[in-house]
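User: Structure please.
Assistant: Input sequence and predicted structure:
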Amino acid sequence: MEEERHLVDSPRFKSLIEKFRDKSYRDSYIASHTRRFLARQMRKFRGDKSQSEFGDLINKRQTVVSRLEDSKYGKWTLQTLFDVAAKLNVAVIVRFVDIPTFLTFTENMSDSASYPRSYDETEIDSFVREPATSEEISKFIRIRPDTPADAESLPDREWPPVKVTAPKGTEVSVDMRTLQ
């Protein structure tokens, strides 16, 4: 929740929020950001390989790789995303979200956000077998904007434990005050 407060306090973020009141700006920004982020990811996936070498890896021609790395290219297909993900052993998430979720999710432009790790069976096994920590669970729980920011100011009775269904049907009780 500290991150959420930090975003709201950012002058850049406040300016963006103000600009988002204009629907045409908002639509343009969302499309542009998505194209830029996908192009950036594609370039990071390629690393030191040439476009031809990377194209061989993902079964695409060099010209296709060039287009996928171009932030002005806007004709990605789901099938292309799935094909690239399968070759790189990563996942694709495509979903419609509300604007606050988009802003929160897209604020992170770090290398770790744009360069996912390939599938690792050991990592998946430990994810399924070990109980999730509060930090891991908080990555999957989005506290709604209408939730009071300062959980400490609320009496315990107003913060009942939240049950989260974890992998393999394990239930985990989470004290929302610990997710700050």
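Residues 1-5, 142-157 have pLDDT under 50 and may be disordered.
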